[in-house]
Structure formats: C-alpha cells, structure tokens
Amino acid sequence: MPPPGGRDFEPASESPRSRLTLGYASIVPASPMTAAADPTTPLPADDPELFELDLRGLRRHWAATADRSPIGSEAMTGADLKAQKLGVTGQRLMEHAGAAVAAAVKAIAEATERWRKGPIVILCGPGNNGGDGLVAARYLARAGADVAAVLVSDAAIPSTPDAARNWNRLDREPRVSRIHASTGLDLKVFSKDVDRASVIVDALLGTGVHGELRDPIRSAVELILAARRAKVPVVAVDTPTAVDLTSGDATDPVVQADLTVTFHRPKTGLLTRRGAALAGKVLVAPIGIPRQADRG
C-alpha cells in the first residue's frame, strides 16, 4: 500500500516447478453480474470465509475488484489519501490489505502442499508496504502458521505510524518471530536456511524504484531470488519489489513472484508484458477505499 503523504522482459531460465501452476488464468474478466455484487462482498478483515478459500475461490471472491479499470501508482496514492480524508483510516486500509495477503499466502501454501511445513518468511520494508506484511504475519500466525517477520531497515522500527503500530503488536503473537535485519550481512546469514520456508513474502517496497537498490533492501531481494531458486513460492505485496506499478519497468535485481496481491484496482504496470512476467498470477483485493476516492 503506498505510504501516506505521497501513499520486453524475458525471465531467467527456470526449472519446471519454478513457475507455479496456480489453477486459474492471470487475467479473467468478471461478468457484469459479478461486478454488480461488489457491495455485498465483505472486506478482507471482516470476511469470515476468507481463510477457507483456495486461490480460485479468492479470485472469484474478488472478481468485481479485478474488473475495475486499472490505475497507476500516482492515482493509487491519491485514492488512498482521499479515502483517509473521507474518514477511512490508514490503519484500517492496512488491516484489510494485510488480511488479504495472509489469505492468499495460506492459499498458495495449501495449493503447493507447504502449509505448516516450515515457517512463512515475510520480508518487510520500513514503510506501509512492510506494514501490510506485518498485518499478514499476525493473521497467518492466528491461522496456525509459524511466521518470521523480518524488518529490513536501517532503523529498528518501521518509519510510518501505522506500520510501527503493527510491528509492536507482533510482540504479543507467540507464533511470530520478529527479526531486525539492518545490513546485507544480516540477510546473508538469515538466507542460509531460507530453503526451509514454506512461503516467502515480498513486502519490501510498494512502488517502483529509481536507480539501483541499496542494502539492506538489495540483499533482501537477492534472498527472495535464492528462495525461489530453491522452489519456495514467492508472494509479492502490491507489486514485486523493483517493478514500477505505473509503467511495469524494473530495475535490477528485481523480485520474480509466483503470485502478487495488489489492492483496490488492477495496476497498469502489472498489465504490461514486463510487469506481468514478474508479477506471476495477480489477485486484486478490495481494502475499503470508497469509489468516490477515485474522483477528482
């Protein structure tokens, strides 16, 4: 989720499993009847059925959201800020985003027969994208998973109030291990056992970056790539790190995801050839941004 205040690629040679078969098409238009049912679909944090759905079920559940017209990063930031002016708090938006990510992570872990076969590793950047990952950690732990929530940042706490609040909340979750990785060396040490993870989640950066990634984010991306080579499924939050949500342009290194959970509307960057190749399958989850927040 974008932070408040602002909020022809050819993939490398891959093994047969490294592109997961997740059981549904990347882009499936929703029917007008499905779109009309949008108001009746509970938002993720309020949805009692969400964690019982498989990937195909989540795609159907959120079909009306996926059927909306796509937007880029700037328009998404504007909608996020206007939603908050209309009374929807940033904390509530983050709660829905994190719940949606958690449901998708559980679904992909079950689809690949990896649920509770190892810890779920969530690499969280210092901003609100990382905050979405921290919320997902809480939901996954309460669903029965062991979770390693890794704050990838020079600072010991996230940089936004909402993300910091969710980092602190994890201190009360016995199934969550909070880890602070402030340097590339920290991540290199951590990466030695990354092949034991059941799923790895990229919650590092929610928008594209300009120029080369710097440590510790760069080393975190390299850790994710190593995990994927070890056949660990990768789920990206909003966009794979280093992929621009508007253009689909990518810097190097860049995360290659098996599944991306983006929010509110499809993103133009993930519909380009380059962006789609890096995003893998895409789910578009509602997070409670009112329709009027897209106007003006």
Task: Give the structure's gist in a few sentences.
With 296 residues, the protein is of the alpha/beta class.
Give an overview of the whole structure.
The chain has 296 residues and is an alpha/beta fold. It has a single domain, classed as 3-Layer(aba) Sandwich (Rossmann fold), CATH 3.40.50. The protein has eleven helices and seven strands. It has helices spanning 32-36, 55-61, 63-66, 73-85, 90-111, 128-142, 161-169, 184-190, 217-229, 268-271, 273-279, and strands at residues 120-124, 147-152, 176-181, 199-203, 234-237, 259-263, 281-285. Helix 5 (90-111) packs across helix 6 (128-142), helix 6 packs parallel to helix 7 (161-169) and helix 8 (184-190) packs parallel to helix 9. The longest helix has 22 residues, at 90-111.
Number of helices: 11
Helix-strand string: HHHHHEHEHEHEHEEHHE
Give the full name of the CATH homologous superfamily.
YjeF N-terminal domain
CATH topology name, in short, is Rossmann fold
Weakly predicted, low-confidence segments: 1-19, 24-37
Give the helix/strand class.
Answer: alpha/beta
The largest sheet, given as strand count, sense and whether it forms a barrel, is: 7 strands, parallel
Q: What is the distance, rounded to the nearest whole angstrom, between the alpha carbons of the first and last residues?
A: 20 Å
CATH class: Alpha Beta
Structural domain count: 1
Count the beta strands.
Answer: 7
Strand content: 5-15%
Proper CATH architecture:
3-Layer(aba) Sandwich
Spatial order of the strands forming the largest sheet: 3-2-1-4-5-6-7
Tell me the radius of gyration. Answer: 17 Å
**What percent of residues adopt helix (DSSP H or I)?**
25-40%
Shape field? globular
Averaged pLDDT: 88
